[in-house]
Structures are given as structure tokens and as C-alpha cells.
Write a structure and sequence with these properties.
single chain; 17 helices; 26 strands; about 25% strand; globular
Length: about 600
């Protein structure tokens, strides 16, 4: 017999009754019934109930063991009495009568309970992540992550993609976030950058003639954490294709994503291919966001013309000054009590708005605070624009276009949840297309890239030379599921002349472009195919499939929101001799970000 185990703790069934077996695992629970001691033994595969009689010479030693101690037990498998069968456990029809017990590793008093679904502070969970991962849900999430990645890899290979690995130590790239820098020991004063994405390398692979590339790529960005974004590092399904249009890219990845979600969705509905295509401007107008949750049936409408020159002077004056009015219909909200509307108005004020104007469609007319300004003609136009019905409410946002779109989008989301009209048990995909190539920075008031700087502008060089940069669209696209952006992608700019011009508009000199992107530019001068791709986020895919709202729940060893690894103690100080070897001197502030006084 094997010295540690003959079976796993999730393997034994009624047909194994009578066998003598050996199991190893962690003590999950212990129940002392006086003359009987029950131990639930757990490993990666499941739980088996083990039992010792008080007459056993092992009873006292077993009774003293702490939860989460690691033991090896041996004994005979016996069927449970019908009344003792546990239908919630796959092994619930049997138990192991212990006649041998070996303590492999004793556990100290636990900082968190493994056998409980109770909530514990995130700091405790991350500091003792190895314990947290023994708990059922975190353990299940990490296994799900592994299975999802294996499914993605299989589907990509079946679709004709070849897996490659790209460098981790590389040069800086303008991907929209700060780089993590690595000082060079042999080149004083120079630094490597950890890749924010394998962008340039995958384009170089296309230029090298490989045609269809993918990898489960680690990416590194020095940015703040939030619920759907892990600080420091993340993984993405990075892929690129040669001789393709935007529709070719969509056609290649949609079956992969649909198949993965259908495989792991647990019966939830999944948008069939082809996924809806929504231009960026339309997304902002109808949903107030470029990450719309299509499970929410509410659609925003532009009703600026309805209130222009109206008796509602607050809106009329704002419109004359360049504002717009967005209407957000609330299906069936007319039946809600006054408190519903008051709470929503208070919430809007907390968002920085003066409140929310609204009307309720009732008795063939309009009721509510601004109903007196909505005559029959204006009401008819509101109904036509919004598709609202008797018993619905209409909420109105009036502001400059960007602010109005943003707040209207938040109102739409809030109403969808409050009215409980968001579709449940479904994954709804869409593509957001035709993003602006450039945008005006709110801070510097200068033109900069709005998305990926390596995208092909629609209209090519002619558009860059003859159009207002802020009107130029790019062959850029995002894929969104349930309001979560899974990835950005683009048809790439593969021509040096177009690249020089695009970067010049964003304020980069020819010399700077050549210094920062010389490798890729040089490659393009020797014949580059039209190519494009995308990079859906692995962490976000698993987060959606696991039904989690925080991305750290599907990462084995995540950092906290302050980009700290509490388990390993990173980031940490470096010995002075190591800094000297790297030709570095520290110039520390007296207070680190207002949190950590310099020691």
C-alpha cells in the first residue's frame, strides 16, 4: 500500500466498501460525540468522513489535533447507515473507520477559518492567502481559471493560431499607463520596462510572417487597483492575425469566447455570434458609456430639441449655452412611491448633479415636478423619442454633452438595478467600434491618442492630412460583456508614413518616434502585412464566469489595492550594496504618498 494515499478524499463510493485504504489531507472539521470522533478529511479533490471509536488507542491523539493539521489515516471503508448518508457530499454514502493515524504536520491556531464562508478582512485573507485558498469558493475559482485557460488555449489552436512567447524585459511603450521599470546593471542609467502588453512584439511576429499568433500573456501596468482591475499585473489572451479586416478579427475570436462562456456558464444564456456591433458615438448616446450592459433594456434618448425654447428655463438657458438633454426612461416606475424619486434625486446630487428632473406618464398626460412645462406636443415628442408607455417615468439630465452622457449612463444603470429589470443568468456580448483616433486631454488641452497609438486611422494618410484630428475615427474596437470591457483591439497601422503622421499629431517628433519604436518602424520598412488583433482579459473573463464582482477573487496571489503583496512582503527595501551595483541613489520624500513616514 502507498505510504501516503491509495485514494483521494473525493474518490471513495459505496462500491469501495470493504476495501482497506489510506488517505491524506487536512482536518476540515472535527465532531466529538463522546464515544465517537468524526473527522472530515479534505484534500484538493473532496472530503471523506473518518470515524474513530473511543476504545481506539488513537482516539486521544486524534481528539487533540487542531483543524487544518495534515494527517494520514488508514482503515476500512464502510457504508453509512441510511439515516447518516450525506447527499451533499459525493463521498456521503461511506465513511472510513480509522485504525492508523499519522500526524504529518501540526497546524497552529488559525487566523481565519477555512471551513467557513464567513467574511474576513481582505488584509487577513491576502496575508494568509495560502489558507484563504483552501476555502471552498476561492479554491473553486482558481480551478475554474485553470480550466478556462486550458479551454481557450485548445480553441485557439483549433482555430489555426500558433502560441508564441514574447519578452518580459523590453522598452517603454505608450499604452496609457505607467511602466514598471527595471534598472540595468550593465548599462548604468538605463532601464528596461516590463511590457504593458506584447503590442510591438506581436506586430513584429506578423511582419516576420507567422500569420496567426496567440499567447496567454502577462502584462504589467503601474496603475491603481479597482474592482475589475488588478494593480501591477494581469493576464490576457493576446492574439494577432495577418491579412485581415476588422470583421475577420471578429469572426475569429467570437466562436472562442462564445464557446468558452457556453462551456462554463452553467446554463446561462450567451449571446450567439455574430455579436452586436455598436459604434462608439451610438454607445455613448444610447447607453452613456462605451461599456454598455446589454442585459439592461433601458435606452437613453436625446431630447434636447424638446426642451429648446421651452418654458422650463433651467433647461432652455443651458441648451442655449451649449448643453444637451438626455432622457432616461424608467419602465413601470410610475407605480413607485414618492420616496423612490426622492432617493434617486439625492443619489444624483451625490454624483455632483443638481438633481434629476422627471415626469411620470399617467392618465394620458404627464405628472411630476416639471409636468407643467411638458404640453401635449412636447409630451408626444418625448414618447416618440423614448418609446415610453403609460405608467413609465422619464428622468432628464441636462449638461454639456460628455457630462450629460456620463450621468445618464449612471442613471440608466441605477434604474436597471432598482427596478430589477436587468436580465439575470445571461452573458450579453457586444463590440464597440469606430473609436475616435484622438482626443483632447482635459489636463493639458493637447491632442493625444484616445486608445491604442498603433491603430490604423479610418481614411489613412489622407484623413490625417486633411481632416480635423478630433473627427477621425480609428479601426479600433472593444469587446464588452455585461458592462465589463474584456479587451481593446485594432487593425494596426502597418505603414511608416501613416505612423509618423499619426504620432506627429499627438505631439511626437520623428526622432522621438524612431527612438521609441525604431524596431517596429524598421521592420515595417521591409514589407509589413495588413494585420490586426485584440487581447481579451483572462482575469475579467474568469471573474464574470465565477459570478464575482472583484477581480482579486479569481487571482491566486493578488496584490491589495495599494499594490502590495502582503504575503511575500513586496515591494520591499533593497540593500545599499544592491542599489550601488545598479548605480542608483534614493531620493525619498519625507512622507510616502501621505501614508508611510520615511524610516
Amino acid at each position: 500500500m502507498h505510504s501516503l494515499r491509495t485514494h483521494t478524499c473525493g474518490e471513495l463510493r459505496r462500491e469501495h466498501a470493504g476495501l482497506t485504504v489510506r488517505l491524506s489531507g487536512w482536518i476540515h472539521r472535527r465532531r466529538d460525540h463522546g464515544n465517537l470522533l468524526f473527522i472530515d478529511l479534505r484534500d484538493h479533490y473532496g472530503i471523506t468522513q473518518c470515524v474513530l471509536d473511543s476504545s481506539s488507542p488513537l482516539f486521544k491523539a486524534a481528539e487533540a489535533l487542531r483543524l487544518e493539521s495534515v494527517i494520514t489515516v488508514a482503515g476500512k471503508v464502510v457504508p453509512r447507515a441510511p439515516a447518516a448518508v450525506n447527499p451533499r457530499l459525493p463521498t456521503g454514502e461511506i465513511e472510513l473507520v480509522v485504525d492508523e493515524l499519522t500526524l504529518q504536520s501540526a497546524a497552529e491556531s488559525l487566523p481565519l477559518q477555512v471551513n467557513s464562508d464567513a467574511e474576513f478582512p481582505e488584509e487577513t485573507r491576502l496575508r494568509y492567502r495560502f489558507l484563504d485558498l483552501r476555502r471552498e469558493k476561492p479554491h473553486r475559482n482558481i480551478v475554474l481559471r485553470s480550466r478556462v485557460i486550458a479551454s481557450i488555449r485548445r480553441r485557439m489552436i483549433e482555430a489555426g493560431f500558433t502560441e508564441f512567447q514574447t519578452p518580459i524585459l523590453t522598452s517603454s511603450s505608450p499604452e496609457g499607463a505607467r511602466d514598471y521599470l527595471v534598472p540595468s546593471r550593465v548599462h548604468p542609467g538605463k532601464f528596461y520596462a516590463l511590457p504593458q502588453a506584447p503590442q510591438q512584439f506581436k506586430q513584429l511576429l506578423m511582419t516576420a510572417g507567422f500569420d496567426r499568433y496567440f499567447q496567454i500573456a502577462p502584462c504589467f501596468r503601474d496603475e491603481d487597483g479597482r474592482a475589475d482591475r488588478s494593480p501591477g499585473e494581469f493576464y490576457q489572451l493576446d492574439f494577432e492575425m495577418s491579412f485581415v479586416t476588422q470583421e475577420d478579427v471578429f469572426a475569429a475570436i467570437e466562436p472562442v469566447l462564445h464557446g468558452v462562456f457556453e462551456e462554463f456558464a452553467g446554463g446561462a444564456a450567451v449571446t450567439p455570434a455574430p455579436f452586436p456591433r455598436i459604434p462608439f458615438d451610438e454607445a455613448m448616446a444610447k447607453y452613456g458609456t462605451d461599456k454598455p450592459d446589454l442585459r439592461n433594456p433601458i435606452r437613453i434618448a436625446d431630447v434636447t430639441d424638446v426642451f429648446q425654447d421651452s418654458g422650463f428655463s433651467a433647461f432652455a438657458r443651458a441648451i442655449a449655452d451649449g448643453a444637451v438633454v438626455r432622457a432616461v426612461p424608467a419602465p413601470g416606475a410610475g407605480a413607485q412611491p414618492r420616496s423612490f424619486f426622492d432617493k434617486l434625486g439625492q443619489w444624483a446630487r451625490e454624483q455632483g448633479a443638481p438633481g434629476l428632473a422627471y415626469v411620470v406618464l399617467a392618465d394620458g398626460g404627464a405628472k411630476g415636478p416639471i409636468a407643467k412645462f411638458v404640453d401635449a406636443d412636447r409630451l408626444a415628442r418625448l414618447v416618440a423619442a423614448t418609446g415610453a408607455h403609460e405608467g413609465d417615468a422619464l428622468f432628464f439630465v441636462c449638461d454639456r454633452k460628455p457630462a450629460a452622457e456620463k450621468l445618464a449612463g449612471r442613471v440608466r444603470s441605477r434604474l436597471g438595478e432598482d427596478l430589477e429589470i436587468v436580465e439575470r443568468n445571461a452573458f450579453r456580448f457586444c463590440w464597440i467600434t469606430d473609436f475616435p483616433m484622438f482626443e483632447l486631454s482635459e489636463d493639458t488641452k493637447k491632442i493625444e491618442f484616445s486608445h491604442n497609438p498603433f491603430s490604423m486611422p479610418q481614411g489613412g494618410l489622407e484623413a490625417l492630412e486633411g481632416s480635423d484630428p478630433l473627427t477621425i475615427k480609428a479601426y479600433q474596437y472593444d469587446i464588452v460583456c455585461n458592462g465589463v470591457e474584456l479587451s481593446s483591439g485594432a487593425i494596426r497601422n502597418h505603414r511608416p508614413d501613416i505612423m509618423y503622421k499619426a504620432f506627429a499629431i499627438a505631439g511626437y517628433s520623428r526622432e522621438e518616434v524612431e527612438a521609441r519604436f525604431g524596431g517596429m518602424l524598421n521592420a515595417f520598412k521591409y514589407g509589413a502585412p495588413p494585420h490586426g488583433g485584440s487581447a481579451p482579459g483572462i482575469d475579467r473573463i474568469v471573474m464574470l464566469l465565477a459570478g464575482e464582482t472583484n477581480i482579486r477573487e479569481v487571482i491566486a496571489f493578488p496584490m491589495n489595492q495599494q499594490a502590495q503583496d502582503l504575503l511575500m512582503g513586496a515591494p520591499g527595501p533593497v540593500p545599499p550594496e544592491r542599489l550601488k551595483e545598479l548605480h542608483l541613489k534614493l531620493d525619498l520624500p519625507s512622507v510616502d504618498s501621505g501614508r508611510n513616514p520615511r524610516s
